[in-house]
User: Which sequence fits this backbone?
């Protein structure tokens, strides 16, 4: 499989590791909009959030919390964004699940921005009920 994150996990491509265990690793991102940006990645090739098991999701987020604290210590950042993209419409570029940990500094100019759009409470309630009704049938693994 021609997947850069699988190659990095297997030692077949270079990366600067900040963390690794049996299931998850963290590496310096090649894209550094602010210094100390890190990617947290499961070793198993999982394309997107929909395919994560509950235990895989838990492991990834446990490591993410530790790495976020370490980034804060190392960078002295004022804030931090987690960005995780799914599908081409979601701006996913590498189709192996990963989380971007992006340190933020007051006054930096890398705003994450979408147009704030308000809709009526009735429509919010309708969408909430629709999502909730789908979740009731979910089985966790
Ligand atoms: Zn992969």
Assistant:
């Amino acid at each position: 499989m021609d997947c850069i994150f699988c190659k990095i996990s297997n030692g077949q491509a270079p990366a600067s590791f900040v963390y690794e265990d049996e299931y998850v690793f963290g590496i310096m991102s090649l894209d550094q909009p602010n210094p100390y940006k890190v990617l947290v990645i499961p070793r198993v090739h999982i394309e997107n959030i929909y395919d994560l098991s509950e235990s895989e999701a838990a492991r990834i987020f446990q490591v993410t919390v530790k790495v976020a604290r370490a980034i804060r210590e190392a960078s002295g950042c004022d804030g931090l964004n987690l960005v995780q993209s799914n599908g081409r419409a979601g701006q996913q570029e590498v189709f192996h699940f990963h989380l971007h940990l992006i340190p933020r500094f007051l006054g930096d100019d890398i705003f994450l921005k979408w147009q704030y759009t308000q809709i009526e409470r009735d429509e919010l309630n309708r969408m909430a009920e629709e999502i909730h009704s789908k979740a009731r049938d979910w089985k966790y693994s």
